[in-house]
Amino acid sequence: MEATENAFRILEKARGNALGILDTAVQFTGEQTRFLEESRWEVLVSGAQRRKTRFQNFVGTAFILFAFWMLLSGHFDAFHLTLGAICCGLVAYLFHDLLFANVRVGDMRIVVARFISYIPWLIKQIVLSNLHVASVVLRYRMPIDPQIVTFKTKLETDISSVTLANSITLTPGTITMDIRDGVFYVHALDQKVADDLNAGEMEDRVAHIFMEADHLYVQDILDAARIYQVLRV
What we know:
Blueprint: H1 2-73, H2 78-99, H3 108-138, E1 147-152, H4 158-170, E2 174-180, E3 183-188, H5 191-199, H6 201-209, H7 218-232
Antiparallel strand pairs: 1-3, 2-3
Helix pairs in contact: 1-2, 3-6, 4-6
């Protein structure tokens, strides 16, 4: 009898342990199912968000290209407008990630506003460089000291590098010759032009436009100084 009672107690204990293990397995399966369901929804939502972003980038790029095409073409009949729309749509489809490549750009309105404010500064640099180049070539001795300036850029996207390269080329006395692995090769007319380029202000301003990297830029300091001045007043 005693052996039988011990056997029943062991069986009852084993049954309790088995039920505990079964409950744990059921809870684990439920958690896993809920996790998989949440992951599936996250994938669906993120995929839809990426498709929406790509479509917005495509539409924005096509609109900008078409507006620029109309500005330059001067033809507004149906035939030319149709050809222009097709070409702009094709180019936008292939290269829409170039113009809106920076994923950290949270608000394109900020980028556009900063780019517009950058244009007067660039025009000022172009005028000053024109005067400098004119003063160099009009001197009797023509103190020209051509040299190749190389520097490793801290810019991270193609659009910002292209903006910097074109800004350098638009400024008389400097021409962007090549960009390889983030290294700019620039032809400078003389030492002053090379020194101005090495100062890095233009690169800082371009980086400020596209809100790149976590570096502290000159323009950020100037903006902070203006805000501090306003608060102080």
